[in-house]
Design goal:
- The protein is an all-alpha fold.
- It has one domain.
- About 60% of the residues lie in helices and about 0% in strands.
- The protein is built from four helices and no strands.
C-alpha cells in the first residue's frame, strides 16, 4: 500500500472518529447553570475543548486504522464475505 493511500485512509478514520468522540463529556449551559450570551442556543457546549477531541480522535483513528491495516495484510475479511448469494441460494 502506498503511503499516500495510508495517509488518506487514516485521515478518513480520523474525521469519522472526531465526529464520534466530539459529544463525549460535553456539558451544556443548562447542565452547568451558566448564563447564555444573547443569541446563543441553549444546547451550545460550555466546556468544549478541541485539543481533547483531537487527542481522542487521534487515538481512536490509530486503533481503527491499525485494525484496517492488519486486515489488509493478513486478509481476515475480504470481498468474498459480501457474496450474499451463497447465503440465500
Amino acid at each position: 500500500m502506498k503511503w499516500t493511500s495510508i495517509l488518506a485512509i487514516y485521515l478518513l478514520f480520523w474525521v469519522m472518529s472526531a465526529f464520534f468522540v466530539m459529544p463525549i463529556g460535553l456539558r451544556t449551559h443548562d447542565d452547568e447553570g451558566a448564563d447564555l450570551v444573547p443569541g446563543q442556543v441553549s444546547s451550545a457546549p460550555v466546556n468544549f475543548r478541541p485539543g481533547l477531541v483531537a487527542r481522542r480522535a487521534t487515538l481512536l483513528a490509530a486503533l481503527l486504522f491499525g485494525l484496517y491495516y492488519a486486515n489488509y495484510v493478513y486478509g481476515w475479511f475480504g470481498v468474498e464475505l459480501l457474496d450474499v448469494t451463497r447465503w440465500f441460494g
